[in-house]
Every structure is written in C-alpha cells, then in structure tokens.
Amino acid sequence: MKGFILFTFSIIFTLCNTNNSLATTTVQQEEGEGIELPTKPKEKEFNAGDKALSHIVDANAFHLFGDYYFHLPVMLYAPDHGWTCLSSTRKFEPVTYGDGTLAIDRYVLNHGSVFRVKDDNFPLGTHRIEGFDYKYVEDEKGKEKRILQVKFDGELYDLETKSTVDGGLFGGSLTSYYDFSITKNVFSLLVNFFILSWIFLAVARAYKKRSNMAPKGLQSFMEPIILFIQDDVAKPFLGHNYERFMPFLLSLFFFILGLNLLGQVPFFPGSANVTGNIAVTMVLAIFTFVVVNINGNRNYWRHILWMPGVPAGVKLILTPVEIASMFIKPITLMLRLFASITAGHIVIIAFVSLIFIFGNAGESLTGSGMGLLISFPLTMFMFAIELVIALVQAFVFTILTASYLGAAVEEHH
Amino acid sequence: MFFLVDFSVIKPDPGLIFWTTVIFATFWLLMAKFAFRPIGNALKKRETDIQNALDAAKVARAEMENLKDENVELLAKAREERSQILKEAKEARDYMVNQAKKRAKEEAALIVQNAKNDINSQKLAAIKELKNEVGNMALDIAAKVLRKELDSDQAHKDYVEKLVDEIQNN
What is the predicted pLDDT for the residue at A19? Predict the structure, then answer.
C-alpha cells in the first residue's frame, strides 16, 4: 500500500514536470503560421494538451492515423435553414489533418469536426474554401477565446461551434445549428450496442438451448458477472424486489463497462472517450433518476417531502435538503463517471506524449528514446489502472443506482 | 493545421444526448426482453432445479438409511427365527428320541416279563410233572419194595401216600 502511494506521488510529480516542459516549449516557440495578431501566442509544433483534448472530444470523422479518417454520416439541423444530411464527412473532401476543402450549406469540416459559418452572407451550396485560420477574442470576463475562421474568396469568416445545452456554464451555448450526426461517440455507442447485443443474445440462446446444463464458453464467462450483479449489487439493496430491476441494472453495468473498455482500446473502433463525455453520463444518470423516481413508493416520497419522526422545525430544513439530494444523487453519478474516464484518457495521452516532448516533436531520436523509456512503463501502469477504473466505475454507477432504487422501493418498517 | 482546442466533453451536446438516449433505451428494452429476463429466469430455474435435486437426494439418502435399518432389523429377526426353529427342531428331536427310548424300554420290560411268566409257568408245569413223575416213580419203587414186604396191605399203602403228599408239599 505504501509503495503504491509513493508510486502515485511520483506519477503526479512527473505530470507536473510534464506541464513545466510544456510551458517551456511554448515560450521557446518562435515561428508561427497564420495571420499576425498582437495578442496571439505562437503556434507550436507539438502541444500535449491540444493533442489530449483533440483525442478525448467528440468528432464527426473517426481519426484512424495520420491523415486517414473513418468517415461518418452527417446530419445537421439549423433552425434558419433546416436539415443538411450528408452520407459521410468525405463529402467535404478532406485532404490533410481532417480539414475539408469544401463548404456545404455554410458547413465546413475542420480537424474531423463540422462547424458552421456564422456570417449569413456566406453562400449556401457547395463551394471550394481556401483554408482555415483563427483569431483570439476577449470575452466578457476578459478571458481569451480562440475563434476558428475559414478563408473563402480571400475573406475570413468566423465559424461557430455546435449547440450545447450547458447554458453557458462551461462556455457552451445554443448556436445557430444542432449536430445530430453519427459522430465518433455515437459510432462507438453503436459498436458497443452491437457487440453487447451479440454477446447477450448468444448467452441467452445458450441458456435456452442448454437449460439445466452446466454453462459453457461465453455463457460461463458472463454468468459469474451476471450473478455478481444479482447477488452482490441487486439483492443486498433491493431484497425481494431485485428481479424487477435486474434488466435495468445489468443494462447499465454492461453498457458502461463496454464503453469504458472500448475506450481503452487504443485504435479503431475503440479509443473514443464516450463515457468521458458528459452528454452520455448525463443521459445514463437521467435514466437512473427517472427509474428511481417512477418506482418511488409512498414511503419514499414521505421521507423526501415530510420526514416522519422529526420535529416540524427540522422538517422545514430537511425537506429542501432531501429535494436537493434527489437531484444531487444523479448529478454525482454523472460527474464521477465523466471525470474518472476523461482524466484517465488525458493521463494516458499525456504519458504517451512524453515521447514526443522528450524527442522535441520528432527531431531528436535520443530524446524520443529517453521519452519512450520513461513513457512506456508509465503508460503501461496507467492502462492497467484504467482497466480497473473501467470496471470500478461501471460497478459504482450500478451499485449506487441499486442503492437509490432500494431506498425508493423500500417498504415501511 | 488549426483546430479549436476546446474542452467540449463537459458541454452536453443535444445530438449526443439524443443518440445516447435512443441507443441506451433500445439496448435496455431489447436486452430486457430477449436476454436479461430469459437469462434471469433460466438462472432461477436452474437454481430451483438444483435445490430440488439436492432435496431429492437428501430424501433418497434418508430413505436408503431407513431401508438399511429395516434390512438390519429384518436380518436380526430372521436370525432369531432361525435359532428359534433350530431350537424347536432340537427339542422335537430330543423328545422323539426320548419317547422312542421309553417305548423301547417298556416293550423290552414287557417282553422280559412275558418271558419270565412263561418260564415260571413252564417251570411250575415242569415241577408239577416232575413231582407226578417222581411220585409215580417213588410209588413204583415203594410198591416194588413193599411188594416184597407187605403185598397190597392197605395200611401201608395209605402211609406211603401220606409220605408222598408230604414230599409233594415240600
């Protein structure tokens, strides 16, 4: 245990050092591309932070390697224009870095993601664009914000990101378009869906065909996990009610576990940071919230709204607290899964990035070798930790859901 | 090579929310109907079947135990019966032998008695005959002796008879 703590600390220190070296790289950087703006820092060759972010965020095209992308269908909705559906992001004719060379109905593809030109004067239909640029603007809080631009007909047009529903809490907002595309994350969700469906339909078939026989093959691999959820998660919290909620708990557990594990696979069709995206964890938490509150019995609601057995004065304090906790519970579920998976992905990418940072972005072979020596064991360690986290987070989400459900269906005693 | 460095994972995207909802709901409903409920039922059925089989085995073992006890009892009873029969047979044999011996003794005693009686009566007859013979012979002798001395003297004849009687009575 002591050794483990020491090791964790050494990793944190290494990470801090990584950040320092990143900062140094930024300062040392001299030459940059793009249009000169006085407040704009210079672009650099390699930025581990950018790299990590570009890997964990959702995208419209699935990056394979180099300039190769797995192109996915695009479905965009702009209230002022209507639907724009493309069979794949290839329609933008990307050449390098997943940057499209065509604008279609004011939409452009940048680094595998679709953006919309803000300016109404930009012509609709398909047009050849000349490239991308960016500028920095200060927002109300005096914080610098980078805005992407597209070069068309010698002019620069601002681009806007797709709508997000955080209400400006994290810098997102409702913009002029919504993206309902089969993105990288949606694609991973579908892959996960089909793999899991195939597994469980096969297992269910095995149970049907080999009823009252010892489990075999895939069936015997899944059975202990199913029994674990049944006996150690569902039964302790739900008692005799457990059977009613088993499908929901199993669906949650395997859906999250599948996505977590798929995200650990470092190549296509894995690697997408799906359970590290707050939209996904939010939906799962909302499912839990809805299932818990739909199944809440009289006893549950009485405990929330008018806690029995405490003085009236305390009740006045308790009721708002209980109502708040009703919402806080799913919010913690959402944040816990999101934060641990995103953090895991970032740390792994940071460790892999050590190779490039040490190698001064591919210029020094000795540096890369040194980086590899340091990065390899750290990344290995991190992958091992991530595997545990993938399981633990799926388990924690499920067991907490079971405990909330247990509280909701508990009979008066 | 410009792109927006944006920590967008924390900004919920309606499109992703929509697709996640659709995919998870489909997964849940589909798996509940075609996988998790049937699997749960199969597991439960197997559990009850195993429990039933174990219970049945327990009952069967108890029955076997009972049967074994019964067998032992039966065997003991049979042994007892056998010894009883043997004992009875022995008694019967002894009785019969004794009876036979007794009968034989009685028969033998009867035969001996008869033989003795016969011998006695024969002896008496023989003695009587002998006495008569001897009397006659003695009369003859005496007659021959007295003929010489008395010659048909009645007094003498009576006296001789008297003597013969005396002898006979002796």
Answer: 38
